[in-house]
Amino acid sequence: MGAGSGIEALRGGLVVSCQAPADSPLHEPSVIAAIALASQNQGAVGVRIDTPAHVAAVRQRVQVPIIGLWKRQLDGCDVYITPQFQHAAAIAQAGADIIAIDATLRPRPDGETVASLIQKIHADLGKPVMADVDTLESAIAAAAAGADLVGTTLYGYTAETRHLKPPGFDLLSQLCKTLSIPAICEGGIASPAMARTALDLGAFSVVVGTAITGIDLQVKAYCEELRRDSAAEC
Fold first, then answer.
1. Alpha-helical regions (H) of the chain
2. In the UniProt record, does the keyword Isomerase occur (predicted)?
């Protein structure tokens, strides 16, 4: 799948983030692939997948574009979404069409920068880059560095934005008005109506994760609410 067609296929549609906590029984390549296929069958225009093993399993079962990433916690570094080129390369090798990276202004390991990482992904892997950002400033910098699309993914998850709660509709509006590259709304979308609002604000597409595929978190939230005022147990 070519870079242009991969991005264009996402226009105006739903991208389902098919992920599960590492300690969940759902954190199995075959299970993630089944969830991805179910999403495609019901009309999702793309999927967002973490880890090379999961990307490879999903690639065998779906035809829609895969936004791939690899969450890695590195000592002394807050950046964890595809932090280094080696992680991007592994995701690309596994079959991802688009590589998602943390594109905040936070320091990266080994002196790498957002600009150098994007350049190397383009040159060595031939893949478009989705820049996961937290602020307009980081989005502008990512676009200037050559990012092919940006997402509101890290709004509310960095020191600068932790006082804010997703969805970042305010940030999304700013991105759509300021940037010439596609802006994707990701994070905090909890209903079809909210997804529609994101598109109405100018989002190129909408990524939904927990509200659709987050079984562990959803069940936990329901059970905690039921226990709050009673002795009921699940």
1. 3-8, 29-41, 52-59, 85-94, 114-120, 136-144, 169-178, 192-200, 210-213, 215-228
2. yes
pLDDT in tens, 128-160: 999 999 999 999 999 999 999 999 999 999 999
pLDDT in tens, 37-87: 999 999 999 999 999 999 999 999 999 999 999 999 898 899 999 999 999
| Residue 171 burial (CB count, 10 A) | 26
- The answer to whether 117 and 86 have CB atoms below 8 angstroms apart is no
Residues contacting 219, CB < 8 A, separation 6+: 234
Model confidence, pTM:
0.94
Phi-psi region of 178 (alpha: psi -120 to 50; beta: other; left: phi over 0): alpha
The whole-angstrom separation of Cα 140 and Cα 135 is 9
pLDDT tens column, 153-212: 999 999 999 999 999 999 999 999 999 999 999 999 999 999 999 999 999 999 999 999
3-state secondary structure 38-93: HHHHCCCCEEEEECHHHHHHHHCCCCCCEEEECECCCCCCCCCECCCHHHHHHHHH
Return the CATH number of the domain spanning residue range 3-228.
Answer: 3.20.20.70
Sequence ranges of the domains in the chain: 3-228
Using CA atoms, how far apart are residues 48 and 25, in angstroms rounded to an integer? 19
Confidence class for position 6, pLDDT limits 50, 70, 90: confident
CB–CB of 52/22 below 8 Å?
Answer: no
